[in-house]
Amino acid sequence: MMRWTHAVMLAAAVLAVGCSSSGKKELPPAELTKFSEEVHLDKQWSRSIGEGQGETWNQLELASDGDSLFAADIEGLVVAMNRETGKVLWEQELDKPVSGGVGAGYGLVLVGTLKGQVIALDSATGEVKWQAPVGSEVLSAPANNGDVVVVQTQDDHVFGLDAATGERRWSYESTPAVLTLRGTSAPVVTNRLAVAGLSSGKVVALDIQRGIPVWEQRVAMAKGRSELERMVDIDGGLLLSGGTLYVVTYQGQLAALDLQSGRPLWQRDASSYVGVAAGFGNVYVSEASGTVEGIDERSTSALWSNDALARRQLSSPVAFSSNVAVGDLEGYLHLLSQVDGRFVGRERVDSDGLRARPLVVGDWLYAYGNSGKLVAYTLR
């Protein structure tokens, strides 16, 4: 069934910049405030990745495996680079509109397309190893445990594919919400489970060999009279830390769940469509409003809250050294202290914006801008 993906893409943009249902004039993004920089981002290398994210609200993310870094653009260009030098190892032109990716590991590089396909490339050569149909557009990176590739589609279906051949092993169907934001969270996989966040505000854990539900947990309940008010999508990436799964919904809750049972460990009100990060015993969330919060994962109390980036359409945060890094619609990468949330550094990466979550590997941070500009940074 066709769903209102393009209309909802526009709705997401409107909601992100703070348009209210009361008819009040839309407020502009907050102006950036000045501060004394305490840390500096040193650019190590940069390059352009084709057409970048495109114009359809994609969030094509970077992936790494060993010394290699992988990126894709909306037109189907997939590039492998040495992550410390930026040297191109291989390029593959798929000539298909890529909308979900990149996933990497166990010798595979994985992307999904707007045409409802999953494509697996050899991580060493870029050779296409297999292609598999999944029926609907793929808007997040496929995940892989070396045996099973797990992919979620826009219509809340989850598929388990054979990692060697792409043959379908199982599928799980869920009824999606009537109206949703454009996007899905990327599945999380272990040797036993495939975990997915759904547009209904539920998280489901499936047996990774058979696709049978092991547990389901509702994180948020739809509230309000209109379908817009009732959206509780889980679009941001799920975060697995030890045995705890962190998940945040739009217009709903931030929750910590026990991975094995799905039992809620704690919950608190939140609204985000981009996901969470963890570090220093805290959880960090970019709210849909533009507020960034640091939350003590033991007490669930907010340690700090920074609202200076209001309505700036923030990316998912990442922990980087002792900082939290987050991108915005004007392409700035902001560094906030993990201790108290104050600004400690800022760098403009791409004037077209930073929608995709930055990638942190050790002491390196990689930012992939909307226009296709990819920059590698270290801290000074």
Structural overview:
The protein is mostly beta strands and 380 residues long. It has a domain of 114 residues: Lipocalin. Helix content is 3%, strand content 44%. The chain is built from 1 helix and 32 strands. The strands form 8 sheets. The chain has a 4-stranded antiparallel β-sheet, with no helix packed on it. Strands 2-3-4-5 form a 4-stranded antiparallel β-sheet, with no helix packed on it. A hairpin with a 5-residue loop joins β8 and β9. The longest helix is centred in the first third of the chain and has 12 residues. The chain is globular, with a radius of gyration of 19 Å. The protein starts with a helix and ends with a strand. It is found in: Cell outer membrane. It comes from Geopseudomonas aromaticivorans.
List keywords for this structure.
palmitate, mainly beta, 1 helix, four-stranded antiparallel beta sheet, 380 residues, single chain, signal, disordered N terminus
Produce a short descriptive summary.
With 380 residues, the chain is mostly beta strands.
Indicate the proportion of strand residues.
35-45%
* End-to-end CA span: 51 Å
Low-confidence stretches: 1-22
Residue share in helices?
Answer: under 10%
Spatial order of strands in the largest sheet: 1-32-31-30
Average of per-residue pLDDT values: 90
CATH C-level class of the domain at 60-173 is Mainly Beta
- Category from helices, strands and their pairing: mainly beta
Q: Write down the Rg.
A: 19 Å
Total of DSSP H or I helical runs spanning 4+ residues: 1
Oligomeric grouping of the chains: single chain
Anisotropy-based shape: globular
Second-tier CATH architecture of the domain at 60-173:
Beta Barrel
- Largest sheet: number of strands, sense, barrel closure: 4 strands, antiparallel
